[in-house]
């Protein structure tokens, strides 16, 4: 057994069941949950982000949720700073940190560290966003492919936030982001005993069903009203990272009259599937990752208790 203090990392695609498993683990192992989700940091964005409910948050202490206003930026560097503090504080209380989420870039940055690449400016960001509005993100992805082919190859042509950031870095420094990233430092991979678990169904079709059901549930719970309130704010627009979150962009466009309800629903589900596909791409190359499947070989779904028991076996951690 490692002499380093333990940390659990629970990863997986959207709608895979991370929240329920995290709550079970935290209750069994005297843990506290640290969100690893780039959308859950924003206040007032509850339904479309599948934010843990007040009742769920009351069961177990949660961290890195509702940190900032949707008008404010929040970066991977911000996450690493806040997560480091949360991990240390949780250990100081004699409890177990459980990092849970699907923002793989945040996990990677925390484990491997970040480079000292330059921060963008409002002027450069506005310039990139104006070009995207005029030409479309696929055109900017093509431009990035010429300037930084390594970074471009990792990104979907519609992954606006990361394409924009890569172009900003190049325009600020003249150095490709991929080159900056070869000099990462400050990661926590060697500082803790990381126990990494990924949760997902065995068949992608089941995940797609869950995604559709969850998006419909969000709509039924009032997602359109939630986005209506956000859209009414003069300081919010679709160029902000918060408003580019899956589901929010599609409902915003529906409210702007750019599509009808059925088109919005299909676009929201499709965008969520694309997000899950990108998350699987990250996970396929993840080091030292153990998988827990929510589906048996015969296709039947596994119960929450069975998933929890299997995960505890893989973690090999005694209760604290």
Task: Please give a structural write-up.
With 320 residues, the protein is α/β, with parallel strands linked by helices. It folds into two domains: 6-115 and 193-315, P-loop containing nucleotide triphosphate hydrolases (Rossmann fold, 3-Layer(aba) Sandwich); 122-182, Histone, subunit A, CATH 1.10.20.140. The protein is built from 14 helices and eight strands. It has a six-stranded parallel sheet, sandwiched between helices. Helix 1 crosses helix 14 (304-315) and helix 5 (122-135) packs across helix 6. The longest helix has 24 residues, at 261-284.
Keywords:
globular; 2 domains; Rossmann fold; 8 strands; 320 residues; Histone, subunit A
Question: Which secondary structure elements does this structure contain, and how are they paired or packed?
Answer:
Elements: E1 6-11, H1 18-29, E2 31-35, H2 54-59, E3 62-63, H3 76-92, E4 96-100, H4 104-112, E5 113-114, H5 122-135, H6 137-147, H7 149-154, H8 160-173, H9 177-180, E6 185-186, E7 193-200, H10 204-221, H11 223-231, H12 248-255, H13 261-284, E8 290-293, H14 304-315
Parallel strand pairs: 1-4, 1-7, 2-3, 2-4, 7-8
Antiparallel strand pairs: 5-6
Helix pairs in contact: 1-14, 3-4, 5-6, 5-8, 6-8, 10-13, 11-12, 12-13
